[in-house]
Amino acid sequence: MASYRIVSADDHIVEPADLWTTRLESSFMDRAPHIVREGSSDWWHCDGMRLIGMAITGAQTGKRFETPEDMSFDDLYENLRPGGYIPEEHIRDMDADGVDVSILYPTVSLVLYRIEDSKLVDAMFRAYNDLLVEYCSANPKRLKGIAILNVDDVGVGVKELERCAKLGCVGALIPVYPPADMRYDSPAYDPLWAAAQDLEIPISLHSATNRVGSGESFNEGFKSTENARRSIICNMDHYVRVSLTRMIFAGIFERFPKLQVGAVEHELAWAPHFLERIDYSYTQRAAGATGYRFQGAMIPSDFFHRNVFLGFQEDRLGIRLRDIIGVDNLQWGSDYPHQESTFPRSREILEEVLADCTEEEKAKIAGGNASRVYRL
Q1: For residue 20, is pLDDT > 80?
Q2: Is 330:266 a contact under the CB 8 Å cutoff?
Q3: What is the reported pTM?
Q4: Sheet of 171-174, strands arranged across
Q5: Regarding the domain delimited by 7-30+82-373, which CATH topology (the fold level of the hierarchy) does it fall under?
Q6: I want to staple 370 with a disulfide (CB 3.0 to 4.6 A). Which of 9, 59, 107, 293 is the partner?
Q7: What's the CA gap between 82 and 370, in Å, rounded?
């Protein structure tokens, strides 16, 4: 594997404690995300809502390998891995883990989609995106940023996309599951798809980013019982499947043929069944046969293979099914520095997962596909 370019297509910044208390616009400062100590654990709060704790954001990196029995939802801010918020430390960890390029998503900002006030979300995301650009500037060849967008107002989202593209971001993140009254088959999103296509900026649908008002149980379930949390974690691919289906069947990839959309941190093995179902429904069921019809002989899976990429971490079954999914659609990521990250054993795990692949396939999955999609 040493000869391959290793691109972790799903890593994360862990937002510093003072990000929003120092950078947020003054009119929102009293509602800024901040850390609250609750007994022996620190939790992020925002606008009266308890959001996420330090344990899963980066305070227990590698514990799954060292002392898995000690993993929990409780930990302190001072235990966060420094590479989550100090770029020079991130680079050191990349070197130790055998990673050449790190594509960076947010951490706390992912769950800010749960905040209802759209103007507040806009302001919080602008502050995060500014931090992201500064973080990546420490080593722009090896650190690549994914901007986060609020698209409640598509025009506002497009402007932020254009701003972040000019600042060097290589991709943009939108909610994996949007509000019930504005799913991704709505024509209202066409300016966003057009801008992303013109800018050659891939759009990501990352796990845990359900927008408030989506009508699903993700947000409430995480505040519920342990069993509810398990049920959500094991089935998060549900949301991305529904969003991708709406996009494909609405003809979005026909109208915007160069648009790239990624399902990130949802693993892979769901995709073969998904592909069979969307094609079967399009050709054999009234729900597909009486709706929008694609031009020529294209069927839904053709658009998936051309326009969709999938991020994964350790899905050995998905890799066994790679010929159905499409080898060119697959991107590996370590999820550094989160609790479930493959760090510091990424190269070892990646070699195990890709053991049955050809050398050409390994090179594509380990970094070549991400390099192509993000134009690295």
Answers
A1: yes
A2: no
A3: 0.96
A4: 7-12, 101-105, 143-148, 171-174, 203-206, 261-264, 308-312, 330-332
A5: TIM Barrel (3.20.20)
A6: 9
A7: 25
